[in-house]
Amino acid sequence: MDWDDYKYFTALSSTLSVRGAADALGVNASTVSRRLDLFERRLGVTLFTRSAKGLVITPEGAEVVTRVKSVATDLDDIEGHLIGRDKKLSGIVRIVIPEVLALSLLIQELPRFQKSYPDIELHILPSHQGADVGRREADITMHVTNQPTDSLVGRVLAPIAVAAYGAESLIARLGENSASADLNKLPWVDWLGDSEMSQTCRTLLKSHVPDTPVSIRTHSLLLHLEAARKGLGLAFLPCILAESDPLLQRIDMIKPTLGPPMWMLVHPDLRHTLRITVFIEFVRDVFSRRSHELLGGAMLELGKG
């Protein structure tokens, strides 16, 4: 089925003139004649007969008119039902986000969003599940990267700093006047996997403590964080996760550094959908207010630059 055939047919049935249909459609008369011939041949019936006064619709053509009007009514009903829905503050918003970020930052702030927009239902999808915004499996994705997907639109939420952290009991073993070489004597938690953040942290570990004993290696940022909190090893972690954690202390002898930034990206078709835009603005506000956690105090000035 070619819907254009019905568009040409409808123009012909309303004007009963090839020239009139061509003018209405903004095409050549020869195009209209050719499309009508092809349409009649495909259906195996004659829809119009030619006369000196123009076209005369046949009984078969009249039946097509009736059925096309029925379809047009159904389409109008669909449009009338859906139009404006994206302008309502209701419906589902599906967000792909690293699970540890959702736990440490987003979930804490959601009661405020829920109070403001009680009719918006949030589906929070851990990024490891692989839901794809480009294929419309989700609406928004939040992740740390230097290479955002070209087919999506969005902006950087914030630069992300990375620093060395450890449990207070483990850092206390260094002493007050420790040299950086003493860090090699303590166990560390290292990264597995090929994410941009894991590569950044792994590079920092090799640079600052190349000879350190590694106690644990893991793909999971959540496990990485928990291992550091339990004193199983020192760790390079995103400041957004570790800076405000009461169980972790930053190791001042290693200066924080900027890692890949945090992006929030959305499918282009959804960027003007109201329930999507209010959630995007909410997240931007959260990141703006908690920038000290994203960067760590020592990195704030660098982040502003």
Describe the structure.
The chain is of the alpha/beta class and 305 residues long. The chain folds into three domains: 3-82, Winged helix-like DNA-binding domain superfamily/Winged helix DNA-binding domain (Arc Repressor Mutant, subunit A), CATH 1.10.10; 86-159 and 261-304, D-Maltodextrin-Binding Protein, domain 2 (3-Layer(aba) Sandwich), CATH 3.40.190; 161-258, Periplasmic binding protein-like II (D-Maltodextrin-Binding Protein, domain 2, 3-Layer(aba) Sandwich), CATH 3.40.190. It is 44% helix and 21% strand. The chain contains twelve helices and 13 strands. It has helices at residues 3-15, 18-25, 29-43, 59-82, 99-116, 168-171, 196-208, 221-229, 239-242, 274-289, 291-295, 300-304; strands at residues 48-51, 54-57, 91-97, 120-126, 140-144, 153-158, 161-167, 188-191, 214-218, 235-238, 248-250, 257-258, 262-266. The strands form four sheets. It has a five-stranded mixed β-sheet with strand order 4-3-5-13-6. Strand 3, helix 5 and strand 4 (120-126) form a beta-alpha-beta unit. Helix 2 (18-25) packs across helix 3 and helix 5 crosses helix 10. The longest helix is centred in the first third of the chain and has 24 residues, at 59-82. It is elongated and about 105 Å long. The chain starts with a helix and ends with a helix.
